Backbone:
């Protein structure tokens, strides 16, 4: 194979960053300062809703009922506790009526009703010690939260002979939002110092360790500004703040790790700082950009679903990923040009290296990962089968998944709104403010209303039907299921009621928690094929553009999906079935919120592709240089194994910090993604990828002639100036890749492994000289 010395070509962007590094940093500093100002109030503008399909029947019925019958859907509940006295005691009743009158006089409050006004049995506890005042707060979520903040101090606490606690869906969502904001601040305070310690351990140099952290902080501040801007265009979920902040920090650190590592390699090979940055941006920088695109694609898939919750995270996630990449490709290279060799200052590992020099000779960096790759490839069938079977086994609990809705049990047991809702659930007949509601539109007679009511009451899962309440040509019925309002029986009841819509003498629409859940599941099921197809097709295209291979993209997609099985299995075993609930501090509701698996899949798949691109790009770079498939896989893992593991551990720390949240969904999101990241980096990248690539051999890099020509014209690769081993990369390429020789040696190749690693290091050194020449 003929080595070709080509001058390293610096693109316009590289020239700008390396020629004017101080200007680049100054602009970045000004933009970051503006982001601090712009994103300062972002948390106050986020919502805790957005779980429903806006085009669903239940959404239409809910809005119509709010408009025509505001009393039908109370979202605020005041639980009046009479202590040891009955709620029917005259003094208690008098005080409760005064509270109801005061509440009705408050601005933004409508539809006030109470047990003492209506005598409704569903508003009185079975033991007669508590009763409810129900009301509806009007306006959007921000307005309702402001109203709740204003009136809560006036009504909570002791009033004469009674004690009042605040509940209802508005209180639950508001308390959830407040807790998430507090938990996010605590998570950042936990994650940042731990991350700094891990970075120092990974780099040795304190200066090098601080650089990824600076990039991460820039990404966090920019994330807040982006989310604030998105709130002007659409509703953004409070969960987006947790997730995108964690991803902004984690990905910025990942990308910075990759770039700083390559920069230090180039410096050690003899390049001056500007040339080292130019080569780093042309190689590692290109990989970072590709990685960001693959993560953004996975997040973009959530935009195909109708729920505002998923759409907002898709929009925010795409922006945050691109911001993290931009910070790593603009701020970091400029800082590296200015630092130069000082990037290795305050090296805390000098002492250990000095001691080792007095004794044993120093081992090549990453040699253990190279030996691991060699060991795995010599036993490729065993590792491929055993690891795949183990991951599938870990994912089996997901077959028992039960989808549900988020409710007050997401909150910690001490939260006031949860205490109220739990007491109502356990001690009140029926479910005040719950159940199903049927909106009837069209002129009808009393006899027709009565006949329809009797028909619904006769259904096997119905406990009681109240109504109708009539307002002109509209009416509504309240249906109380026999069991929980969102269990399987309640969902079947929704289907039964809707199946009778064609025979009703008026137009009917069903809403309520059970109906919302049915519609949400249908919306997720309808959008899932398109989302998965989008992720698969675009990811296959991107990886093909990077590698020029047909098999590598297929392998990457399948192995990434396989790496998520442990996350999904743990999600069910822990959070649905309730194992470890005492240790982790949550209450299992017996189901998983319907949209959460979609969110976790898209995010985890994108993060897995992030690490996959890091590894594949380095393998491809070495294969283009040497043409030796087996050595390229070994070299790729040797060069990136420690880096990927360090990046995964750091990102897992960030996610675990998020997982310390007191809100169950946030806890599951953080801990689940941490598990997925660690499994992918430590199992899939270390075992499955080298095993499968050894099994596929030289065919790994095959592509038909038309696709080869397409890649030659449009494809990208990491070492732009690196010599190619062959012109085609097909299965007919020369046997000089050493594949057959390794196969003949079999297990006897143990002694050759170290020599291969040394020769691989020599090849890399020569390659570095080619990259920076001229």
Residues:
């Amino acid at each position: 194979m003929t080595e070709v010395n080509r001058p390293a070509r610096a693109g316009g962007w590289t020239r700008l960053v390396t020629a004017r590094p101080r200007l680049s940093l100054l602009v970045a500093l000004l933009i970051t300062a503006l982001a601090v100002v712009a994103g300062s109030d972002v948390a106050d503008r986020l919502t805790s809703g957005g779980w429903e399909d806006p085009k669903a029947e239940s959404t239409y019925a809910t809005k119509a009922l709010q408009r025509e019958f505001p009393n039908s859907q109370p979202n605020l509940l005041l639980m009046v506790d009479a202590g040891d006295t009955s709620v029917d005691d005259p003094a208690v009743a008098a005080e409760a009526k005064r509270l109801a009158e005061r509440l009705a006089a408050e601005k933004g409050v409508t539809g006030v009703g109470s047990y003492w006004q209506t005598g409704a049995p569903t508003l009185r506890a079975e033991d007669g010690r508590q009763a409810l005042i129900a009301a509806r707060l009007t306006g959007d979520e921000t307005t309702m939260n402001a109203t709740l903040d204003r009136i809560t101090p006036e009504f909570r606490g002791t009033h004469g002979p009674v004690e009042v606690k605040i509940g209802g869906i508005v209180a639950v969502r508001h308390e959830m939002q407040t807790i998430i904001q507090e938990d996010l601040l605590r998570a950042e305070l936990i994650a940042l110092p731990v991350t700094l310690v891990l970075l120092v351990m990974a780099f040795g140099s304190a200066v090098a360790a601080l650089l990824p952290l600076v990039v991460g902080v820039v990404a966090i501040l920019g994330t807040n500004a982006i989310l604030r801007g998105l709130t002007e265009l659409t509703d953004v979920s409070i969960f987006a703040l947790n997730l995108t902040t964690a991803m902004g920090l984690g990905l910025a650190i990942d990308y910075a790790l990759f770039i700083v590592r390559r920069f230090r390699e180039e410096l050690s090979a003899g390049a001056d700082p500007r040339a080292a940055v130019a080569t780093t941006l042309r190689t590692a920088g290109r990989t970072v950009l590709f990685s960001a695109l693959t993560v953004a694609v996975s997040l973009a898939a959530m935009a195909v679903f109708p729920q505002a919750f998923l759409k907002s995270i898709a929009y925010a996630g795409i922006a945050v990923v691109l911001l993290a990449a931009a910070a790593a490709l603009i701020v970091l290279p400029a800082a590296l040009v200015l630092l130069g060799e000082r990037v290795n200052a305050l090296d805390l590992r000098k002492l250990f290296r000095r001691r080792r020099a007095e004794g044993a000779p120093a081992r090549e960096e990453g040699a253990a990962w190279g030996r691991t790759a060699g060991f795995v490839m010599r036993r490729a069938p065993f590792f491929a089968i055993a690891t795949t079977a183990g991951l599938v086994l870990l994912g089996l609990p997901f077959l028992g998944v039960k989808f549900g809705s988020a409710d007050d049990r997401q909150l910690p047991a001490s939260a006031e709104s949860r205490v109220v809702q739990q007491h109502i659930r356990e001690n009140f007949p029926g479910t005040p403010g719950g159940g199903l509601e049927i909106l009837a539109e069209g002129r009808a007679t009393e006899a027709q209303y009565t006949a329809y009511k009797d028909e619904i009451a006769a259904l096997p899962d119905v406990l009681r039907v109240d109504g109708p309440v009539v307002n002109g040509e509209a009416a509504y019925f309240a249906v109380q299921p026999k069991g929980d309002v969102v269990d399987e029986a309640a969902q079947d009841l929704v289907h039964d009621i809707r199946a009778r819509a064609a025979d009703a003498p008026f137009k009917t629409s069903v809403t309520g928690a059970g109906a919302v859940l049915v519609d949400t599941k249908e919306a997720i099921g309808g959008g899932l094929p398109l989302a998965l197809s989008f992720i698969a097709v675009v990811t296959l295209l991107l990886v093909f553009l990077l590698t020029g291979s047909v098999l590598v993209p297929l392998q990457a997609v399948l192995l990434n999906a396989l790496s998520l099985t442990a996350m999904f299995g743990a999600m069910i075993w822990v959070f649905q079935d309730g194992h470890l609930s005492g240790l982790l501090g949550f209450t299992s509701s017996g189901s998983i919120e319907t949209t959460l698996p979609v969110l976790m899949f898209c995010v985890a798949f994108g993060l897995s592709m992030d690490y996959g691109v890091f590894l594949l790009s380095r393998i491809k770079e070495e294969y283009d240089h040497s043409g030796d498939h087996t050595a390229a896989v070994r070299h790729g893992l040797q060069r990136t194994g420690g880096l990927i593991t360090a990046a995964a551990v750091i990102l897992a720390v960030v996610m675990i910090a998020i997982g310390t949240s007191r809100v169950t969904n946030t806890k599951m999101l953080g801990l689940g993604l941490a598990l997925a990241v660690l499994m992918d980096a430590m199992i899939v990248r270390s075992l499955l990828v080298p095993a499968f690539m050894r099994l596929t051999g030289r065919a790994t890099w095959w592509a038909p002639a038309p696709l080869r020509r397409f890649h030659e014209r449009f494809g990208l690769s990491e070492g732009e100036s690196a010599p190619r081993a062959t012109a085609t990369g097909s299965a007919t390429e020369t046997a000089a890749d050493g594949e057959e020789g390794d196969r003949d040696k079999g297990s006897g190749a143990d002694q050759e492994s170290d020599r291969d690693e040394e020769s691989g290091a020599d090849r890399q050194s020569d390659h570095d000289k080619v990259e920076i020449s001229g």
In short: The radius of gyration is 31 Å. The first helix runs from residue 12 to 19. The first strand starts at residue 76 and ends at 81.
